[in-house]
Amino acid sequence: MATTQELPANSPIGRDTRRVDGPYKVTGLAQYTSDFRFPGMLYAVPVEATIANGRVLKLDTATAEKMPGVRAILHRGNIGRIFRATYEAGFEGITEEGRPPFEDDIVRYYGQYIALAVAETFETAKAAADAVRATYSKETPNVQTHLESDDEPDVVLTTYGPRERLQSRRGDAEGAFATAPIKLDRTYVTPTETQNPLEPHATTALWDGSMLTLYESSQGVVNLRAVLAQMFGLPKENVRVITKFVGSGFGCKLYPWPHCALAAVAARQVGKPVKLVLTRKMMFQSVGHRPRSQQRVRLGATPEGKLVSIQHDYVYERSMLDAHHEDCGEATPFQYSVPNLRVTFGRSKRNIGAGADMRGPGRVPGLYATESAMNELAEQLKIDPVKLRILTEPRLDESLGVPFSSRHLVECFEVGAEKFGWSRRTPEVGSMKRDGLTVGWGMAGCSWGSARDICHASVQLRDDGTVRVATATQDIGTGTYTILAQLAAQKTGVSIDKVEVALGDTSLPPGPLSGGSLATGSLVPGVFAAADKAIGSLLVVAALTPGSPFANHSPDQLIFKSGRVFVKSDGSAKGVPFHDLLRAANLRLVSGSGRSEATLFSHDKPKFSTHSFGCHFAEVTWQAEIARLRVSRVVTVIDAGRIINPLTGRNQIEGAVVMGIGMAFFEHTTYDPQNGAPINSSLADYLVTVNADAPPIDVHFLNYPDTEINELGARGIGEIGLTGIAAALTEAVHHATGIRVRELPIKIEDLI
Ligand code: MOS
Description:
The protein is of the alpha+beta class and 752 residues long. Helix 9 packs parallel to helix 16 and helix 15 (646-665) crosses helix 16. Bound molecules: dioxothiomolybdenum(VI) ion (MOS). Dioxothiomolybdenum(VI) ion (MOS) binds at residues 219, 249-251, 254, 357-359, 361, 515-516, 719.
């Protein structure tokens, strides 16, 4: 576990660093979207459809309109124009539900907004929304859970453009499977899951002439600005989106939903700021979910444990409207070595809200299926599952035919096995006991992609010895404020507490989406480039200011190190702090702008395949007499490049593992077959892992810098911790109980 590129001992990079925004949060100074208030502000509450399939025939708004304090009841008949938005490039112009609110009178899912009450108080708006009467023509909604692929063409449209349903193919997967000495053919099912961040979606919209300002709980202010500009037919410069703090998102806040446009159109129509905050119930209906998936995995192998064929054919549910793609097969072509492979997908339309990315979209359900199949194959072959994976380690990315930029998956397995004590495992079901309980062990590999999004940034060095760094990204609770402070401190030599961080505002230079675990890796080159420019300006100031100690030098004879300027050739000098030079020149600050562009959307054939890898080892205890199952410990090893902040990094992986326990045992959004409503649409009924369910989680990072991504070699870590964990847990359950559950979540009924 060595880092190949050493940083100075006092570097803030790689050091456990507490969140710089922590004090704002614990003292209540941090303003979340719903905390903002403006003079004359009105409150909006949507009217939700109570059917999932049909048409609105009539809306009776008379009672609601007459209520004191009601300013408007907006609906299809009287709402101002909202245009559609279309994909631009990069992460811009993306919506998960393409149809603007109220565009037609067709109801396609329960909870679809059909009207909007605007009033002086939230309570009045709620009462008015409840008083709107809708008459519908109804048809039975299709919320069926069994998924058969709809008869769609070979190329289907998704959020980012066309995609072939035959995702990947090499060799002759069908033929090699038919003749394989060892075969495994299994279908795995993952349920609909709903993201449910603690902070619900919220929007406050203000117009000043043709200038729109939107406060939004968003994982991507830059995209939201692009979408709003399109929806209201405005130049981008006329739209400003502000997101200072986010009570997490898990993907449902990546892209705008109908309520954003509704708040904005309402504010324009009533001529006042309008606030719209979603209820927890609405969070289950109209702002995305991880789609249900059904994945057939066929593996062909030799008795020695070499894979000869993989077929991964999956179907997922989609709404009537959206084009969300749940890329379950993303990692299948390169996770393990196999000469013959085929990955296909299909989709099945349902009367439910649009699907959306949920932490680790695609790979979380996908690796659950393929890693579970690997575990079942190991059992069939009587080969240790760790050994099977080491036997199938590829030398390069066999789907692209290029090397991995940095892949240390085998070392992850070895370190994880050692930390967990895997060598003490006895493979027979129910054979391990402790304190009267049956112990079950399971493991799985995991991975997540790595690429860069756009990051334009500015850095200022100031005469009081402070530094400001700014970029229009967001901090969704993962620690982005802190990472930015660390990066600026690293380059400028000031301490973390001397760095002011500005983010979450589209008036700043465009920064990365807080999604896809892209943010950290994208920030490094943008911020470093900006800091270099600011330092360049400082050296010019140092050389040109009359009376400066460097006045008889040219800027290129000078060097900046640890916050001080030196003459390059003069190794022994003490140097001059940058703020002294600025003061002497009567400058408040010098500034630099830097940029790095996205690599994610490049169409060039890459030189390297860049991913993070890792593994989970999980232990459960099972008390058959009372059917009590507990997760008792988890060891997770992650190879995600250089870890910039191990403290928040471990926290990300721990949180992901906790969420993975939810995926394996609790989370499941169910729909009422009568009216298509999400049934368990509250946090009392939608079960998630709570503290009492969370075991000790031991997180290790390998810390090999991957300089293909950026000069620090840092990749993102928000999502990888959730990939693979459900397969490790279901394997542990099988080891303890002898029962293989292939449809998540595992319920106690499955085990008795
Ligand atoms: Mo993550 S699903 O990209 O917020």
